[in-house]
Amino acid sequence: MLTRLKAKSEGKLAKQICKVVLDHFEKQYSKELGDAWDTVRKILTSPSCWQYAVLLNRFNYPFELEKDLHLKGYHTLFQGSLPNYPKSMKCYLSRTPGRIPSERHQIGNLKKYYLLNAASLLPVLALELRDGEKVLDLCAAPGGKSIALLQCACPGYLHCNEYDSLRLKWLRQTLESFIPQPLINVIKVSELDGRKMGDAQPEMFDKVLVDAPCSNDRSWLFSSDSQKASCRISQRRNLPLLQIELLRSAIKALRPGGILVYSTCTLSKAENQDVISEILNSHSNIMPMDIKGIARTCSHDFTFSPTGQECGLLVIPDKGKAWGPMYVAKLKKSWSTGKW
Predict the structure, then answer these.
(1) What is the pLDDT of residue 8?
(2) Which of 340, 338, 305 is CA-nearest to residue 321?
(3) Tally of domains within the chain
(4) Which domain holds residue 252?
(5) DSSP tag of 119
(6) Which residues, at least 6 apart from 15, have a Cβ–Cβ distance to it below 8 Å?
(7) Where is the signal peptide (predicted)?
(8) Domain for residue 194, yes or no?
(9) Which residues belong to the annotated binding site for S-adenosyl-L-methionine?
(10) In 10 A of CB 270, how many CB atoms?
(11) Catalytic residues
């Protein structure tokens, strides 16, 4: 079955690589990643090499599927090696490319699993959500990380925000597909400009996730419209400013002592390390948190590129570990006042 699905998946993903984007990435990433870029480029431009993790839904647990995944050679992410890994979260991955079919959305029926890039769970795990905490997912669509957060713990309040109206519909549908009604009642979905959230709800949250709009390297490489791709590239330089503004808003929304996690799905240093450096340099009340331990315990499943930051990790796609790109940074808000 997986072989048939793989062939179908390859056909579906056999889009034309956008030369404008590839040339742009080539110039930037060959400098930033050095020799590693050759392998990263090969994986990113070869959808047949891509892997898909299977996140099981604890609210409608698929016991039969779990047995099937074991038989097919899938293994659990981290395999118990990560401290504080929530026992309620089960994610399976295979070392070979391929994917199982996605489930259709059916009103009143909870889906049993969610397909995702395994690296996208790292920001969720870095947040270390606990039962009863108030958490904000500032840029929440399509909803995968919100779903993953709810596999980890039962928050007292989860605020999922998405400014884009089309993506907001996608977010709502994702939540309805995976979360039972009693929990839906502790979730608020809003359509606010994330840059205004801090003023709207100051010091409201224990934990904040900013999975920021970014140069989505995987999808940009397969832009079908080269003119649109050129426009995206020219607008790319504006993204770090937006990301910084979102982080400043998130800091305002975070209570003193709270945890903030920033993530992107791009390799770009300007949108990753440089954004975090700017935040640390301009906010005396924000402290970096060392997350190098995650890289040490996850090296058998992910390949990491050096970031030069103790608080930041960068997952890069590699042969047999085709996860990422995913940048994750973890910060903490102290009790002192910051400079803006």
Answers:
(1) 44
(2) 305
(3) 1
(4) 19-50+118-333
(5) G
(6) 47, 222, 224
(7) none
(8) yes
(9) 139-145, 162, 193, 211
(10) 16
(11) 265
Question: For position 164, what pLDDT does the model report?
Answer: 94
339 belongs to a structural domain: no
Dig out the tokens for 23 from the structure: 């040339």
> 108 in the Ramachandran plot: left (φ > 0), alpha (ψ -120 to 50) or beta?
left
> Does the residue 98 lie in any domain?
no
Answer yes or no: pTM beyond 0.85: yes
**pLDDT attached to residue 126:** 96
Instruction: Determine, yes or no, domain membership for 111.
Output: no
pLDDT given for residue 95 in this prediction: 82
| Chain position carrying tokens 């995987």 | 218
| pLDDT tens figures, 146-192 | 999 999 999 999 999 999 999 999 999 999 999 999 898 899 999 99
pLDDT on residue 336: 65
Distance CA 282, CA 127 (A): 22
Cα angle 173, 174, 177 (rounded to 5 degrees) comes to: 85
* Residue 225 exposed, middle or buried by CB count within 10 Å (0-12, 13-18, 19+): exposed
Angstrom distance (rounded) from CA 29 to CA 31: 5
Instruction: Write out the two tokens for 171.
Output: 């977010």
CA-based torsion, 57, 58, 63, 67: positive or negative: positive
Sign of CA dihedral 121, 123, 128, 129: negative
Binding residues: 139-145, 162, 193, 211
Taking 70 as the pLDDT cut, the residues of the chain under it are 1-15, 79-80, 336-340
Provide the token pair at 120: 């996208």
Whichever domain contains 268, its CATH number is: 3.40.50.150
Query: Could you tell me where the beta strands, DSSP code E, fall in 42-182?
Result: 53-56, 75-76, 91-93, 113-116, 134-137, 157-161
